[in-house]
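Hi C.,

You asked whether I'd gotten around to modeling the 337-residue construct. I have! Everything is below, sequence then structure, no commentary in between.
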Amino acid sequence: MATEKKRLAITMGDAAGIGPEVIVRAWSDPRIHAFSRPVVLGHPQIMQQAVELLGAKTEVVEDNCESGPATMPCLPIGDDNVLSVAQGTVDPRTGQAAYEALIRAIDETLAGRFDGIVTAPLSKAALHAAGHFYPGHTELLAERCGVTDFAMMLYLPPQELPNSPAGLGVVHVTLHMALSDVFANLSSTAIVEKCHLAQQVMHEGFGLAAPRIGVCALNPHGGESGLFGDEESRIISPAVDQAQAAGINATGPFPTDTLMVRARDGEFDAIVAMYHDQGHIALKLLGMHRAVNITLGLPIVRTSVAHGTAFDRAWQGTAEATGMVAAITTAAKLARK
């Protein structure tokens, strides 16, 4: 049933980071329990420490029981060596535990035992230190799910943008790579694929009949008729033409500085950005703590907070949980679709 509460796997992320606090603080919000049955995957003692730090009235239960504001089911993942890791530090032990929790969440969701995954942040450095050489969650999820056409979308829910009927999504053509590598990895084919993914999630996931997709230019001023680069005429414009020929309501390329203002004001439902910071900075300025990370192209639902481990602020009791609440409620909405 569409209204049935969806069972979501919430991965703890890096135990030395802000993830456990964010989960605990979000747990008391009634919105996450209205349409979902969240279960934490991680170390129960770490979660208990976060409960005590925040003075939460939540019992951590090592079981797969029903969840609620007063009960946090936690499936134990990893061994006890994470308990001796110093808070706010990069360590292979927490990197390994975060990896194991994500793999378990993916496999359980693919098997139908969860309806979706919500991930707390992991440390890419700790992941690498543990011997898992992925740029981040997105690439690991794609490999484990066996997909090659995928993308990260940063998303602001509609309540954050009054002129946007379904919120605003920003899909990235290139993702976790050096800026100097973006030019070599940009292609018309990749741009068209991301336009397809943006159209699909805004139509099927968020219910828009004909999502309006704006495509970013790469160079300043959109290349200024070739004075600042020819990628717009050589790569991006042909991709927009191909997307339109495929029935996608895509337009561009537009200079990003003005495009994001137009999107904020309701002219577009999704933006296709050429590289990571081109999309991230603009959307986070619109709603840093309320943005949600959605992985597109997977056979399963996966959302995440749009921030990192915040080692400099972790375990100080000051975690901001608005993003985790948004990530959980968005995952439940997508799972219902």
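If it helps when you're writing up: Residues 148-292 form a domain with the Isopropylmalate Dehydrogenase fold (CATH 3.40.718.10).

Thanks,
B.
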